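Sequence in, structure out.
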Amino acid sequence: MATVDVSKSKILIVDDNPVNIDILLELLEGFDVRAVLDGMSALEAVNEELPDLILLDITMPGMDGFEVCRRLKADPKSKNIPVIFLSASADDESIVKGFDLGGVDYVTKPYLAKEIVARIQTHLTLRMAMRTLDRLANLDELSGISNRRQFFARASRLFDQAKDKNIPLFLFIIDIDKFKTINDTYGHATGDKIIRGFVTKVKKNLPKAHCFARLGGDEFVLILAGMRKDQARDQVEQLLLNIEQTDIIPGSDISITISVGMGELKAKDRDIDELLARADINLYEAKKTRNNLYG
């Protein structure tokens, strides 16, 4: 099994005793370590830059470690950061409370050097593994953009926000014209390059898209929000033109066109599926002539 390198991980130490901090800094030489002396400073540090792991003393003046952890776990941005509690207290009540609040480990003082380093490395390795699993679950492996699963999660949130705040929202289903013919003619390896090249073009032409995902095969979905209908259409029509006029694979003479169906958010819509259905119907119309936006 390949060894996971956690040496570049960011660790935040929170302890009101400078001596304890110095001991940990020496043990963690080689890691990217930041230290603060109180709970409020810890919350501010996390807000500035999310660490990969937090070593959190429990007994501190003002805000104790338990309260710091409670606040971290209540914030969506920091709730998944692993917290290892540090304490001179080894009573069952404190240990159970630490785990109940979301801590991943509980280390008692004085520290055993090899033990605490081993625990830190274990939790950092688990953290990296969870990130990898999350990426695999939510990103399309070939194109590097959101996959179908992540699209529906993000699109549903955008839909709810647009409905609540009366924000214009437009959904576009995009299909690469004659993609099967391209695969049959040039091979699937070239087809994969075309997928990646197309994604690069979209990112360059529509950098402020609210959501861009691959639904599967040569079908993609794009969401633009907070603009007028003519502005949204103009952006996508410019994308059609740029795709048509440039070589999709640098250094080759292969060119492609795309067909696009648009769905506009309406007051009566109950969920994102209704926009998707209308955009899909309009995509069918667009493909009758190809290289076209319909809707």
